[in-house]
Known about the structure:
Elements lengths: L2 H26 L2 H4 L1 H8 L8 H9 L3 H29 L3 H24 L1
Amino acid sequence: xxxxxxxxxxxxxxxxxxxxxxxxxxxxxxxxxxxxxxxxxxxxxxxxxxxxxxxxxxxxxxxxxxxxxxxxxxxxxxxxxxxxxxxxxxxxxxxxxxxxxxxxxxxxxxxxxxxxxxxx
Length: 120
C-alpha cells in the first residue's frame, strides 16, 4: 500500500486503456488517419459517448471511443484511489486524526466531482 505504487499503477493502467481505445478507433476507422474531415467529425462528436449507458454500449461492441472514455475515467479516479489508500494506511497505523482528515478530503473530492457533473 505505497503511495507511489498506487499512483504509478493507476496512471499506467489508464494510459494502457487509452492507447488500446485509440488503437481500436483507428483500426475500425482508418479514414481518420487520412481525412481531416473525418478526424474533425470524430473530435467534435464526443457528446455521443459521455453517458454511462453509451460508454457501456460502446465497450460491449469494442468501439474505441468507449474504451478511451473508460481510460479517462480511470485517470480521473487516480486521486480518489490515492486518498482511499491513505485512509487505509492511516487506519492500519491507528492514526484517527489523519483518518478523519483524509476522509474529509475524500468527501471533498467526491462532492467536487458531483458538482462538476451537475454543471456540465
